Amino acid sequence: MSLILYTRHGCHLCEDFEQELRRLQQEQPFDFAIRDVDARPEWRAAYNDRVPLLLAGDVEIARYFLDPQALRGYLTKHRMFP
What we know:
Blueprint: E1 3-7, H1 12-27, E2 32-36, H2 41-47, E3 53-56, E4 59-63, H3 68-78
Parallel strand pairs: 1-2
Antiparallel strand pairs: 1-3, 3-4
C-alpha cells in the first residue's frame, strides 16, 4: 500500500502540504504519489472539496493540513518505508 496525496493546481494548501511531506521524507524516508483531482472525473467526484488529502489505500491520514505525528505513527505502525 502506498501513500497518495490528492491535490490540484493553484491550491496553496496543497503546495504547503506537499512541502511538509517532503521535509518529513528527509527524517523518515517513505514514498508517496501525487494525483491531481482534476485529472480524472472519478477523482474529482470523490475528492473535489477535500484537497489536499493524504490517503493510504482507503484510510485517510490527513486532510487540509498535515499532522506530522499522525503520519509518523502510521508509517511506523504499517512499516511503510521504501
